[in-house]
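User: Here's a chain of 462 residues. Predict its fold as tokens.
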Amino acid sequence: MLQFLMKDKIYVLDTNIILQNLQNLYKISQNKTNHIVVPETVLLELEDKKKLSNELGYYAREFARLLALMKIKEIDYKLGFKVVKLFNEEINLDIISKDKYDTQIEQIHLSESNDKRIIETASVARDYYKGAQTIFLSLDVYARTFALFEGIKTETLHDDKSTVPKFDFLKKIELDSSIFNSLDQKSIKDIDINYEKENFSYIFQSQDGNTEQAIIYNDKIDTLKETDFKALSIKPVNLKQKLFTKAIVSNMYELLVIDAKAGSGKTLMSVVSAMRLIDLGFYDKIIYVRNSIESLDKGEDIGYLSGNDEKFRIYNMAIQDTLEFIAKKQLKKSESKDNPESIETKISDLQSKYCIETLWPGEARGRTISGAIVIMDEWQNSSEKTTQLILSRLDESCMGIVIGSNRQIDNLYLNKYNNGLTTLLKQTNETHPELKMFAIELDKAVRGKFAQFTERIFENKK
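Assistant: Prediction complete.
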């Protein structure tokens, strides 16, 4: 067996570490400070993912390319297993294959069977790299539990332990009443000496009861006015919705990032505001983007459906529900808004008038999107790679609206620390030379009594 020092770390990787982001390998290696081990079973799982057209397939193929470019140091044949040793300038990577596994593959429990075979390989690695710290690295708590049963040290990615900074998107400040009449278009730095870049919106208050609300653009105060929402077919109903909607219809920001709980009206107000900007001639169309969770997760069910429209119909239901709501609001009583045919006709008219398209991230490669307001919905379920893919498709004539909620992460490869929504939220506390950003949190449910009931019962527990 090989002899290592106790300070040396051997990381045995689960498949999900590679599929979450290929850059994880370079972070784990730390320029060959640590040693990486990939079990044979992981290779088989990655091979199965290579044919997928989504992000998982991309990372699986990228890993195959990485292996193809690495050099072979040696192949070490041992009793019961073999080790293929590869390297490049930044990574030392070994692949371990057992001659015979104790775990029998059960198709009905394939994932669990593979997990147990990977743990068997981690046990081999612990004995092979004598003296080093062997650590099983996985995003899956069940797989890590299996490893603990075998006495193997486990970790998850370090970004699981990072912190999401506390954002002060909406700041309250007390002012003397004499200042209120001159607030609009005044420099915020003259009013708030502690102003920070992430203070995108303000509530100004005085002791005698005066209040003003405003968004900040180029360090200037732009107060809410009665005329801001006059032309909208559906009006914002609370303060944060008003600030969010004003930020869109003002057309001053290129990228808006919204952390919004379920039922807060984020999709509805995004679409209504986008329609207004198209009416004004600033943009030509609305593109609605949403990830399919299965395609990013297991890649199972969705692959067997024929045609993209049928595959992703379920993921576009949010935009369809939004259009139906708008259609009902716009239909006059004389048009019988309770008539399904009238509603369907109105929805079709809206889709045609505002050139509303739906886009699956896998269809975005190679495209250039122009003259569009791109609404990226449920973005807590999208990775940094998908976020880069979509945003890099937009040219200078576009606006991006990114909305999601870290309370509702369904993607097994992501958490609230490493998804695309959080990554963009973190960027809002800086000034970027390329574009202007806006951010806010919509934390009030407006969908109705059921949303309010569930929020009170399930989210506000002490």
